Amino acid sequence: MSYVGKILVVVQVVLSLLFMTFAGAVFTAHQNWRAKYTQTQKQLTTAQGELSVAREELTNARREFEAKFSEESQKANALAAKNTSITTQLTELKSRFDALQQERATQTGLAESKAKEAQFRQEEAEKQRIENAKMQAKLDELSGENRELKDKLFTGEEAYRALNKAYVAGLAQLAFLKRIVANAGLETDPEVVSKQSAPPPPVDGLVTEIRMNRANRVQFVEISIGSDDGLVKGNELDVVRITGQERSDWLGRIRIMDLGPDWAVGEVILPAKNGIIQKGDNVTTKLNI
Description:
The chain is of the alpha+beta class. The protein is built from 3 helices and 6 strands; from the N terminus they run H-H-H-E-E-E-E-E-E.
């Protein structure tokens, strides 16, 4: 073997070793990526479960508060109405009492000026005194009920203020929980969350634009269908390339990150080992792999 041949053999051995080392590094990186993806999916599922529990607890607390608030409001209104009625009765009784006092004074004057009618007036005055005593007792009773109703009204107002304070605190806690959910990148609208958990509608579209990452791999894909076609954020679609009448190549899977009425942008979450996504490729939700 010549000297040049020996050099070529050595170079070939070195290149083989370098290729084996590079292949091992690529395999290790691929395994690490898959493990991280699985862990992220588990964390997302846990966060969504905790969000559902928090929403249910908040809904129950709000229902209980609103029921109790309505009940206390009705009690306060009833007490206020009763207090108004008793106050009216008290005013009427005071007017009658004053009138009777004036009448008694008149009767007393007539009794002094008319000696013949003194006995009669005295009896009338005694009867009037008894009636006045009864009315005074009634007035005292109504005054006591009025004070009791005022105390109940004050207690009801204190309970109302406490319930209102709890309601405000509940609203603040709800806003805090929404901020936590938004910071976690999760949707807070129950209708949108329900649509995200439902399977995507059966639709087909085309790739209109692609965007590469720093590793010169396709990272984002813009497609020709959007919310008017029933898509929502989080829906997943498969990218395929039709190579024949009954044959197509699977190029990867994307998840919708943003969308409009007739467009959407998806991130490549599962690229194919062979094949690169290009403009004009097809996207579909009808493919199961």
